[in-house]
Design goal:
Length: about 55
């Protein structure tokens, strides 16, 4: 699961931990990547995830 726009979290009423908890209830093996295209946060992890699936 990609959780995008994490750079906006300081300005929003959004519980990331609850979101991830709910997602794991549906899919216990889900991978969660938090990223911000604007700041670049998490992009390296996302690129690495994509590369690992291409092999």
């Amino acid at each position: 699961m990609i959780l995008n726009k994490v750079d906006l979290l300081p300005y929003l009423d959004f519980d990331v931990a609850k979101c991830i908890e709910f997602a794991k209830r549906v899919n216990p093996g889900i991978e969660v990547l938090q990223l911000s295209a604007k700041s670049g946060e998490g992009m390296d992890a996302w690129y690495a995830w994509i590369k690992s699936r291409m092999a």
